[in-house]
Amino acid sequence: MAAEAEYESVLCVKPDVSVYRIPPRASNRSVRAADWKLDTPDWTGRMRVTARGKVAYIKLEDKISGELFAQAPVEQYPGVAVETVSDSSRYFILRIQDDSAG
User: Fold this and answer.
1) How many other CB atoms sit within 10 Å of the CB of residue 7?
2) Residue ranges of the NECAP PHear domain (predicted)?
3) In 1-102, which ranges are E strands?
4) Cα(19)–Cα(34) distance, integer angstroms
5) Cβ neighbours of residue 83 under 8 Å, at least 6 residues apart?
6) What is the pLDDT of residues 20-65, one digit of tens each?
7) DSSP β-bridge partners for residue 73
8) Can you tell me whether residue 10 is helix, strand or coil?
9) Closest by Cα among 19, 8, 98, 101 to 60
10) Which residues touch 95 (CB under 8 Å, ≥6 apart)?
């Protein structure tokens, strides 16, 4: 018998989020949101957090069309997909990668 299909549940939707491209770390120093250009985000849209099985997905989507801009699977927290910043509880680092790069 085939395995039961896993349903995707929506855990949270934030309708207005900003994304900033941050440079690679030069040292083990903690990351600070104050070092980013907070007044000029690289992208804005909505964030949807979903779950399928034991994995959560943080999805960044266009506010109007719903087109996926990027996503990060979160298999465990704390982990490599989501990192805190040292100077804020509002900002965090989301590690995304281009799955089409081969």
Assistant:
1) 9
2) 7-100
3) 8-19, 43-52, 55-61, 68-74, 82-85, 88-94
4) 14
5) 31, 92, 93, 95
6) 988 777 777 788 888 888 999 999 999 999 999 999 999 999 999 9
7) 57
8) strand
9) 19
10) 72, 80, 81, 82, 83
